Amino acid sequence: MSGFERSPNLYARIGGALYLVIIAAGLFGELVVRGGAIVSGDAAATAHNIAASQSLWRIGIAGDILMHVCDVPLMLIFYTLLRPVDRFLAQLALLFTLTQSAVLVASKLSQITPLLVLGGAPYLDAFDERQLDALAYVALRSDAYGFGVGLVFFGFACLAMGYLIVRSGFLPKILGWLMQLAGGCYLVNSFALILAPPLAKALFPAILAPAFVGELSLCLWLLIKGVDVARWHERAVD
Q1: 2 part of a folded domain
Q2: 12, 226 in Cβ contact below 8 A?
Q3: Domain of residue 120, residue span
Q4: 3-class SS of residue 85
Q5: Residue 74 falls inside a structural domain
Q6: pLDDT tens digits for 132-183?
Q7: Which of 37, 40, 59, 66 lies deepest, with the highest CB count within 10 Å?
Q8: pLDDT in tens, 11-56
Q9: Are 155 and 112 in contact (CB under 8 A)?
Q10: C-alpha angle with apex 90: 84 to 95, nearest 5 degrees?
């Protein structure tokens, strides 16, 4: 019997702790770093804010990378916890989440671009200040779209995980329903961003509030309560 099978709650609580780090790092990056620097539609003000707080911007990027590092063991924990319910769907959720992380990690390069563009290197003398500000802002818009594309895959992962949780018997069904709602909200937000940006602007950030509630609820349940070990073992030997 593996260590996981002997103590699934230990791994569930590790998963909850990792999930909490991911949520905290995500909120810090979005609300404190990017929320404090990016001025919608104003490239000059955004460039000034980033140039004036480069250390904070770099900390935000590092926090996002830490978030995705934590994603890797969390994916494996979710897969192993939910595999007894339906191996195929657990694998599918794992692959969707892996794709999401790969897209978001690649998108982080767009957050590094403003530091390079606004860094004052001699080779940037070919551009005037307004052009540099515009290039930095375009990179940030690209990152926003990269984030939206990544969340398409995470939205489908949430739908699959939510379904597995509802069927599991060792986690409360309400957590599964909340995760499915989260997945639906992520999909609406991302496809609105791609297909109808004015609609996405009108929906954001309210559209992501249910997603935050769903993910935080699952995170805290895993961290504090874990799984019903007896029911998990029953499913594992079915």
Answers
A1: no
A2: yes
A3: 8-236
A4: coil
A5: yes
A6: 999 999 999 999 999 999 999 999 999 999 999 999 999 999 999 999 999 9
A7: 37
A8: 999 999 999 999 999 999 999 999 999 999 999 999 999 999 999 9
A9: no
A10: 155
